[in-house]
Specification:
The complex is a heterodimer of chains A (91) and B (172). Chain A has helices at 10-17, 22-45, 60-67, 79-90. Chain A has 91 residues and is an all-alpha fold. Chain A has two domains: 1-45; 48-91, no CATH class. With 172 residues, chain B is mostly helical. Chain B has two domains: 9-56, no CATH class; 62-170, AhpD-like (Up-down Bundle).
């Protein structure tokens, strides 16, 4: 939907119908469209998760250090790195 | 004809969607294709169109400017359906096709647009073409023309309309 919408044609929808009802396809399509729209917008706002992977509330600066500048799963952020960042902060 | 058949109009009305269908007549689609497609998923037509309609027509940013933005986005998404709709309110307020087309072109230094309008149109243009250029300095420039509330209003409007346009594009 985001990168090659021209590939989502009638044949593609026919293949979807093997697995999903029309109601489910509309639900999926609207959900995906909504997320394509909003996550691109959110990206421009440059904000980060409020919590570390183990649930500690952190500042935006610390969160950026933990999660990095590129999107990824919160599970991929290292709790070890988080602890190291905290150590560095406290000296 | 859409790839997913719209829900029968009487059935959509039976589900309480008559006001939504009527609002599409005002936009130039008396068949109300989009909400009748969304009607397959219970509650989606009311919720999503409600958000889109409020984002376009309410708030602190000129609705005519948002109409130009909306159509520019539909053209970016290559969605003929939403590209073809027009806000009756915006047209009544004097919005012309010439101005709409200008808003989809190169707006930098176009005397038809104020600096604030130019920024809003570049905001929409860059969001899904070169989002990496919508950075801190870009937002700082926007704050010279709009409040943060207005910028969030524009960003949210851009996001929901583009998202539904790119979905609708695949259904035609």
């Amino acid at each position: 939907m985001q990168f090659a919408p021209e590939a989502i044609d009638a044949a593609f929808y026919d293949r979807l119908r093997v697995h999903y009802s029309d109601a489910e396809i509309v639900e999926l399509g609207a959900f995906i469209g909504f997320n394509v729209g909003y996550h691109t917008f959110f990206r421009t706002l440059d904000f980060y998760p409020m919590f570390t992977p183990d649930g500690r509330l952190v500042s935006q600066e610390e969160s950026r250090r933990i999660y990095g500048d590129r999107p990824g799963s919160h599970r991929s952020a290292s709790v070890v790195d988080d602890a190291a960042a905290a150590d560095e902060k406290t000296g | 004809m859409a790839i997913i058949d719209p829900v029968d109009r009487e059935e959509a009305e039976r589900r309480g969607l008559a006001p939504v269908l009527d609002s599409f007549a005002d936009l130039g689609d008396p068949e109300a294709i989009f909400p009748r497609i969304l009607a397959h998923a219970p509650g989606y037509a009311e919720a999503l169109w409600g958000a889109m309609d409020r984002a376009s027509g309410e708030g602190g940013v000129d609705p005519s400017l948002k109409e130009i933005v909306r159509i520019q986005l539909a053209r970016t998404a290559q969605d003929p359906y939403f590209s073809g709709l027009r806000s009756r309110r915006a047209v009544a307020a004097g919005l012309t096709e010439e101005r709409i087309d200008a808003g989809s072109g190169v707006v930098s230094d176009d005397p038809r647009f104020t600096p604030a309008e130019e920024w809003a149109l570049r905001y929409a243009y860059l969001m899904y073409r070169r989002p990496e250029e919508v950075d801190h300095s870009f937002y700082e420039e926007g704050k010279e023309h709009f409040t943060e509330a207005q910028i969030m209003e524009l960003g949210g409007m851009i996001a929901i309309h583009y998202g539904m346009q790119v979905f609708m594009r695949t259904l035609q």
